[in-house]
Every structure is written in structure tokens, then in C-alpha cells.
Queue: 3 jobs
Job 1
Amino acid sequence: MTAHDLLELRRVSRHFGSFRALDEVDLTVRRSARHAIIGPNGAGKSTLFGLISGTLATTGGTILVDGQDVTRLSVERRVGLGVATTFQHSSLFMRETVLENVLLAVLRRAGRGFGGWRSVRGRTAAIEQARTLLERVGLPTRHDVRAAALSHGERRQLEVAVALATEPRLLLLDEPAAGMSPAETARLTELIAALPDEVTVLLIEHDLDMVFGLADTVTVMHLGRHLKTGSPDEVRSSGEVQDAYLGTTGVTS
């Protein structure tokens, strides 16, 4: 692991009985990267994310975040170290407003809850931070709308705001464009591209247009193994990727 890398996986595996969902995967993600993981169904992408986020335990190997071994740490401990995740299935509080969803994340980051925030000044600052995050993700006029009333695309934007409220160094996005219209995907791509360099992004995505338009680095998974990592052009033109991922038809954007 070099000083330029934020995340490193060393021979990371996850077995379910005799099935090897991931088999000794090595991967590094450099700081400030927009790094995408692609591959067909069954390639091991979601399992990989579960291991990095802490929702799944490894069978073997080591996971390092900024040089610290997090392999056995809980999700909460990893969040405290700057690892935030948005999953394909929404985890928002649907009965609460857009602002309340983000505010709760801000207060949790500060070690407080709605009922435990005694300082009016502190609560005002937290509300202002939540409003700033909503502007960043393109929801500046939706503060008082319940999350349940948002469109699918808006919910994904809100999930990014909630994740950003934890002040992540590493943001994991699990199929962020799933179920989105082309216009919604374009807005989300712009949002992710505009995130500050302090936030390193690692995403799983099936939408190759989004991947090749956003990522500076692409990793291809195949049958639980790391196949290739390179620039979008390197991956797109790779014969082994074409054979393993899309047969002989090629990888196109």
C-alpha cells in the first residue's frame, strides 16, 4: 500500500460453504479516485462491497483503509474511520422529511440524536450543514418533502447526501443508477463527478455509459476473481475483458 492509496484488499476471500463468491482478490483504490467495479451477475461485486463496508465477514485476507486493518471492524467502526455506503435498496426513513433524514445523519456523526441535542446554536449549525448537503446533491427545494414522496432518482440523491453527512473519505455506491431514467442517471453522474477530491468514490454499476463517462479507473470482476484493472480505454479494448465479460462482442459505452 502506497501513500497514494486509500483502500487496499490483500487476498480477500468470501466462501459460502463450498461456493467461493470471492477468491483471493487483490485491489487498491487510490485517494481521490472515481473507481468503478463492473462484471456480469455472479462476478462477486456485491460480495466485495459487503466485505469493504463490513456487512459481510471475510473468510480470508486483509482489508486496509488508509493503512489501518479494518478486516474485523464493525460497520459503525468503519463509518467512524470515514467509510460510507449507499446500497441498491433504499435505507432512508420514508416517513421523515428530506431535511430530517440528512439532519439525523449529521447529528449521529456528532454523537447526538434528535432528543439529545441541547445546544440551540449547535442544532442550528447542524441544520445549516444539512441544508448545504442538500444543495450539493441537487435537492435545495425539497427540504420539507417526506422521503416517501420523492422520485426514485431523488431518493438516490438523498442517499448520497445522507452518506456525505458522515464526512466520508471513502464513499461506496452500490449500483447508484439502478432503476433510473437516462436524465436521472445524467444528474447523478454530474453529482458524483462534482464531489470534492477529499472523497474517494468506489462504485458498482451495470450502466456502462455511466461507468465510462465517470470513472478514471475500472476494475473488472469475473467468477469471484479480479480480472483486470485499468483506465476506461484499457478495459474497453481488453481482449480478456471482452471474452470474459461480454463474449467477443466487445465492451462499449
Job 2
Amino acid sequence: MSASLFSAQGLVKRFGGLVATDHVDLAVEAGEIHALIGPNGAGKSTVVNLISGLLAPDAGRIVLDGVELTGMPAHRRVRHGLSRCFQVTSVFGANTVFDNLLLAVQAHTGSSFRCLGRRSADTRLHARALALAHELGLADVLHRVAAALPHGVQRRLDLALALAAEPRLLLLDEPMAGMGPEDSAQMVALIRSLRERCAILLIEHDMDAVFQLADRITVLASGRVLATGEVGDIRAHPEVQAVYLGSEAAA
């Protein structure tokens, strides 16, 4: 059996006497949307921060596409194919959508330190930025200032910035947070369309979205993996129902 695209093995993180993650194992396959769920305080944010490099594990290892990421700083993990959208939208609010996209594409191509010439005159960067705009439904707002965009559109721009790094694994931290039903439905469709581009680790409290999108689900409780399986298995799992899903699982 071939190795998973991504694996986290035995992740432990302690904050003083608190064990936030207790030997967490997680694997994501190529082309998979894998959801990570659990009640508040389960350790989801800690796991994602360990994977992305914002926290260092006390034990365990992290491997992406055969490359050991454990101990590697966050920016180097991006170069090796790991990208992340945070729960709080992070865009360059004072800049236009097009300038946001150009900056993100430029950073990934390694041309960030070219001092001569304008980004907008670089036809290669221009073409890649436009392609991202069309893919993420941003073509009609290219010249609007990012901070003035509706929340749902800002989330799509944030996703476009993460995709500019051409990730093998994309970490999506509550992409539906703060969205109404229409924006959430659009985001679900957009995330589903990305599965051919990269694998996705999805952290999300909107269980309708999770059940629509996920190929497999890992459930955390008190810093430990409670269960991993396909959607039907997780919905029917008695411990998951008791700890997290409750009546939703029977709906």
C-alpha cells in the first residue's frame, strides 16, 4: 500500500500541565477532502497550528509528499506544498483584488525581490493572477479595494491567495464562518471544485457542509482521535453522537 500524501503521526503538544493533543494520528490522501471536527476545546486549532508550523510539537512527526516537515518553519512548509486559510480572513485590505492576487503569485514565483519594473507589466504574473480570479469568481471585482468587499467575497479572495502557492495540501480553517446560507452554498461548491487541484484538510463547524464535502472525517475529543472514517460511519458512530453530533446524526 502506497504512503498517504500527508501524515501526522503521534502529535503531542503540552501547554504546562495541559495536554492539548495526545498522540494524534492523521492522514490525508491525494485528491481527498478530509474533515477534522470536534467540540470546542477538542484540540483542532492546536493540530492545525502544529501542521502549519505555528507551533512546534513536543513529540510526533509531520510528512507531506515524502518530505519531513517536523521542525521546519512555516514559510518553508509553504514552499514544500502546504498552504493555509485562517479562520479570520487575511487579505491586503487597502489594495485591490488584482494587486492582492499579483502579490501572492509574485511571492510564490520567487520574483519577490525584483526591484525594477511593475508587477502589472509582468505578463506571466498578470496571466496567473487573472486565471485565479476567474477560477474563484473574482473577475468582476478585480479593481475593487479588498476591504470594501462583502465577507463572502473576501473569503474567496483569501482562498485565492492560498491557492497562489500551488499547494499539494490546503488547510481550510472554518471557511464558512460568518457566512449566510447563499455564501456558504457557493463556498461548498467552490471547495468541491478544488479537489482535482489539491488535497484539502477542512476544519469546519457547519456539519451540513462537512457531510456534503468530506470523503473521510476525523473526530477529536479532549485532544485525542475519537474516530476516523467515511461520513456514514461517523454519523452512525455512537461515541461521536454522544460527544459531538448529538441529535444531528439522526436527522
Job 3
Amino acid sequence: MTRLPVTALVVAKAPVPGQAKTRLAVTVGNEMAAVIAAAALLDTLDAVLATPVAARVVAFTGDLDEVHNAAVLRAKLADFIVVGQRGDTFAERLANAHLDAAAAVGDRPIVQIGMDTPQVSADLLARCAQTLLGADAVLGPARDGGWWLLGVRTAAMADCLRDVPMSRSDTGALTRKALQDRGIGVVIVDELADVDTAADVDFVRRRCPQGGRFPFATAAAGL
């Protein structure tokens, strides 16, 4: 299979109980929320591994030693170039992740996602990457007003994220504006739903591939 000249970048944090999926933990508790977060991350990494791209990078933060079944996640991360996150705010960490990915594997187009959309598939990621090759940037909106995917032709284009307020209902619109204000054309791709609370689970689970970890973990939690 021909690899697309694109880097897939996953921005993720260790699914540590008490630190992962805190809004979901209100319903299922810290331990189970962390299990679900780990399942979502592993499903996401599997989708990226199946995507025909030139390089795969994870910008990671958190202590893997505090993760349940850390060996499974360590083994999965071994198939990626892993860089540490840096920055005081989430927006800074996102912008820096693009720069650090480019420094690690070369400054080619980057498609970046998080770990909140376990329903993502290799086919969808490949289609978004292919779209990026004919555009300056691509943006995948999230149902809550944020975004689940950002693709840029060069890492420097993501620098505009530093001034965008994150985790708000207008983050998607503000990200699009920040790019366009710098003369960067934006193509909108598929909308997906993030998993933040228990109310999000069923909608996402019904769109996950069969046999995924996320459906199993959420069902085990009684969601």
C-alpha cells in the first residue's frame, strides 16, 4: 500500500485514575473512567497504525507507571515516535506538538487528533490526510463545538493555536478563524463526537468498529 506523505500525530495523556476523563468519572468513578480512557486511546492508536501514512507520532504527557496494565500501552506506543508534551496551556502543548513532530520525523503535512474519538477509522484518517494534500489546512469539527482533527501543510501553521481558547463551545469556530486570519485556507472534513461525559458514550459507541476496546469497556462500566 502506498503511504501518504503525511505525519499522523496523536496528542494524548496517560490514563491515570483521577486525572483521566474527570467528567465521566462523576458517573463511573475514577478507576473505571481511566479504564475507558485507556480503551479509547488504544483504539485510536490502532486506527492510526492502520492508516497508510509516512510517519506516526504521539505527543504524550503523564506517568505511565501510574496506569493500569501499563505494559499494553507501552507496547502500543513502541510502534510510534513518542515526544513529550511541553507548554503551560493545552493550546501551547498542541502548537508545540506539531513543531516537535516535525523536528522528529520531518516537516511534512501533519494530521493531528486526540484520544477522545475512539470511533475514528483508518479509512477516515486516510481520507482526511488525502484532502490535506490538496489544501492548506483541514479541520474536523466536533459535535460540542470544538474540533477532533486538525491538519496543516507545515507545522508552523499550527502556531496560531496558541491564541485559541480551548475546550469551549466556540473553539472550532475560533480555530478556523485563527487559521484564516493568517491567510490559511481551511477545508472542513467529517464531524465526530468527543467522549467527555456519560451522555456521550452511547452515541460514540454505536459508531465504533466491532471488537473495539471502547465498546467493551463502556459496557463493562454499565454505560
